[in-house]
Structures are given as structure tokens and as C-alpha cells.
Design brief:
It is a single chain. By secondary structure, the chain is of the alpha+beta class. It has one domain: Alpha-Beta Plaits (2-Layer Sandwich), CATH 3.30.70. Helix content is 28%, strand content 15%. The protein is built from five helices and seven strands. A hairpin with a 6-residue loop joins strand 2 and strand 3. The longest helix has 23 residues. The protein is elongated and about 90 Å long. The structure holds iron/sulfur cluster (2 copies).
């Protein structure tokens, strides 16, 4: 019996040492942040932004309120006016309280026109709560900062058009695929 225990312990010891040895010669995966930048997965959910329409220069948002309704944290607040003749809505104000947000991405997923996005920008913080309440202008600025160093010519986000959703449940824009032109 004692022999068996000794054998088992020895076997585990060899197993453990072999793992150590195997990893000893591998390149370390530790990233020396902030000197080294971490590689984010596409569509990482970071700082919020309102997408600026390259044609109008204003937010793409059409004030449908879907994001406000779906938000589980109730951290989105939108105000709009309605044109009495055409019925078209015009966005007046848009506010997100980032400290209440749980970064679920529902807002960007539900938006029919790809107007809201959780960018891949994660390096932001503040000791001041007010600085983390993003109004419309701040959200547009977040977008400008995000795309300033965006390497591609067009931007799209996988949450704008998730796989597995029946085509009939998608808006026309989603069916076509929503893209934002960044540069020529
Ligand atoms: S990511 Fe989720 S919690 Fe945050 S604003 Fe969007 S819907 Fe609300
Ligand atoms: S879902 Fe999109 S278009 Fe509708 S209010 Fe939200 S950001 Fe604007």
C-alpha cells in the first residue's frame, strides 16, 4: 500500500515538473502594460460613442428610443422633437451614465441604424463622476477620438448585425449590413 502511495506521488511530481519544463521555453504571455499595448478582440465593448454621420456631421441617431427601452441599467436618457408635418423625430439630447452601464451591448445590438456603439477604447477613467456621464457632444467626441486612430477605411460592429437573428426581424439597413466610412 505504501509503495502504491509513493508511486502515485512520484507520478504526480514528474507530471508537474514536465509541465514546468514545457512552459519554461515558451514565450511569456504577460504584457507589460501600459508600455506594451494589449491586443483587443474586435468588437470589444468599451467606451460609448454616438456614431457621427459622415454626410451630415451630426449623430446618426433617429431617436427611435429602442436603446433606451432595452437598456437593463436604465442609464440612457433621450430627448427629441417631432416634426408635426412629416412625423420625423429629431434628436435633442442623448445621455449615458457610464458608471451605471453594465456593457451588455444591448443598445448597439438593438439600434436599427448603427448609431450607438461601445468602442474598443478602454483607457478612460475619472475621479469625477460627472466626467463619466456622456452627453450627446461627449459621445460624438468619443466617436471622433475612436476613429482618429482607427486603422481601417470602414467601420462596422458585429453587434449591429448579429448572426442567428432571422432576416425578417432586422431593419432594412441591418439586412444590407451597416458600415461607416472612415476615410477614402
Ligand atoms: S451597454 Fe447595456 S447597460 Fe450599457 S448603455 Fe448599453 S444597454 Fe445600457
Ligand atoms: S436605438 Fe439607435 S437610433 Fe434609436 S435612439 Fe438609440 S441610438 Fe438612436
Amino acid at each position: 500500500m505504501k509503495k502504491e502511495i509513493k508511486y502515485l506521488l512520484f507520478k504526480d511530481l514528474i507530471k508537474g515538473l514536465s509541465i514546468t519544463l514545457k512552459n519554461f521555453f515558451k514565450t511569456p504571455v504577460t504584457v507589460q502594460y501600459p508600455k506594451e499595448k494589449v491586443k483587443l478582440y474586435p468588437s470589444f465593448r468599451g467606451r460609448h460613442a454616438l456614431v457621427r454621420d459622415p454626410l451630415t456631421g451630426d449623430a446618426k441617431c433617429v431617436a427611435c428610443l429602442k436603446c433606451q427601452q432595452v437598456c437593463p441599467s436604465r442609464c440612457i436618457d433621450i430627448n427629441y422633437t417631432t416634426d408635426l408635418e412629416t412625423g420625423a423625430r429629431k434628436l435633442i439630447s442623448y445621455k449615458i451614465e457610464a458608471l451605471r452601464c453594465i456593457y451588455c451591448g444591448y443598445c448597439e445590438e438593438v439600434c436599427p441604424v448603427g448609431a450607438i456603439v461601445l468602442t474598443e477604447w478602454f483607457e478612460y477613467s475619472s475621479r469625477n463622476k460627472e466626467a463619466l456621464i456622456f452627453d450627446k457632444e461627449a459621445l460624438l467626441k468619443n466617436w471622433d477620438e475612436f476613429i482618429h486612430s482607427y486603422p481601417e477605411k470602414v467601420y462596422t460592429n458585429k453587434y449591429w448585425n448579429l448572426k442567428g437573428i432571422p432576416e425578417s426581424n432586422k431593419s432594412a439597413l441591418k439586412r444590407e449590413g451597416i458600415y461607416v466610412k472612415i476615410k477614402d
